[in-house]
Design a protein that fits this description.
The protein is 12% helix and 15% strand. By secondary structure, the chain is α+β, with helices and mostly antiparallel strands. It is globular and about 45 Å long. It starts with 19 loop residues before the first helix and ends in a 33-residue tail after the last strand. GO terms for molecular function: zinc ion binding.
Length: 116
Amino acid sequence: MSEHIPGIDTEVAPSGPGCLECSEASGWWFHLRRCAQCGHIGCCDSSPSQHASKHAESTGHQFIRSYEPGETWYYSYADETMYDGPELAPPQHHPLDQSTPGPADLVPSDWQRYLN
């Protein structure tokens, strides 16, 4: 994926350090995913609210990239396939001092029972 790929914008910055919708609703997430087209940060499908998938469904943006430290994989909702791809605009992942799951002060003590 070194050439221009429709649906991947390497210039757009991420929407923030955490899931946009969870942050607005004082919610929490397990892992984070970044829309490779618009930079929207949403929570993964294991998270209670699954905002990354909901964003893809509502916008038609097909590619996400992990927003976790040390992970650079892409996933295409269109063909349900994992890919390698270009580096996106920084930052590449959520802040290293941010907890997983997060944000720490909103994660319930029994958080594992809420995972999908």
